[in-house]
Design a protein that fits this description.
Residues 133-202 form the Large ribosomal subunit protein uL4 C-terminal domain. It contains nine helices and six strands; from the N terminus they run βααβββαβαβααααα. By secondary structure, the chain is of the alpha/beta class. Helix 3 (80-84) links the parallel strand 4 and strand 5.
Length: 204
């Protein structure tokens, strides 16, 4: 995945677990679940990435940095936050308050998410209907994807104008002050003026 998660041994994606996980209150239970789901390799990757921050952040109470681990998305908090919050790299999100900054850190999509069953079912209620406030349901721009059939239909062809097949060549615009032939087209008297000028100069 684009975030570099260790999910080679994960049995399925998207990874959905039972609702009883929302009732976990001990970190020991959460660790056992992650090991059972073969997701503990991703946590070990987080442990291995822990290091000191470069720069002055060390003096500002943010000295250590680490990679992101799995994102656990739940429907109701019956203790799940207390169970998972002490595992490094884990992010906990309520399905009703999903955050794009947490789901795609740094603008890179592909975060490894672990869903509870009720949270996964609630996705359709939130994002499959118009019930969520300040959310516009995605609509298809085209109901019929056969574009060639639409363009060749008599209704469309009747409205369209006939193609212009006449070729218009670009004409080079010449400067009449430098080109005598063009000047004579614009001003036929220019020839007489030039001749008179030459004769006048010859007399002098």
């Amino acid at each position: 995945m684009s975030k570099g998660h260790r999910i080679e041994e994960v049995p399925e994606l998207p990874l959905v677990v039972e609702d009883k996980v929302e009732g976990y209150k001990k970190t020991k239970e959460a660790v056992q679940l992650l090991k059972k789901l073969k997701a503990w390799n991703d946590i070990k990757k987080v442990y291995a990435s822990q290091r000191m921050r470069a720069g002055k952040g060390k003096m500002r109470n943010r000295s250590r940095i680490q990679h992101r681990g799995p994102c656990v998305i739940y429907n109701e908090d019956n203790g799940i936050i207390k169970a998972f919050r002490n595992i490094p790299g884990i992010t906990l999100l309520n399905v009703s308050k999903l955050n794009i900054v947490k789901l795609a850190p740094g603008g890179h999509v592909g975060r490894f998410c672990i869903w509870t069953e009720s949270a996964f079912r609630k996705l359709h209620e939130l994002y499959g209907t118009w019930q969520k406030s300040n959310y516009n349901l995605l609509m298809h721009k085209m109901m019929n994807t056969d574009l060639s059939r639409i363009l060749k239909s008599p209704e469309i062809q009747r409205v369209l104008r006939a193609p212009r097949k006449k070729i218009h060549r670009r004409v080079l615009k010449k400067n009449p002050l430098k080109n005598l032939r063009i000047m004579l087209k614009l001003n036929p008297y220019a020839k007489t003026m030039r001749r008179n000028t030459i004769l006048r100069q010859a007399q002098v």
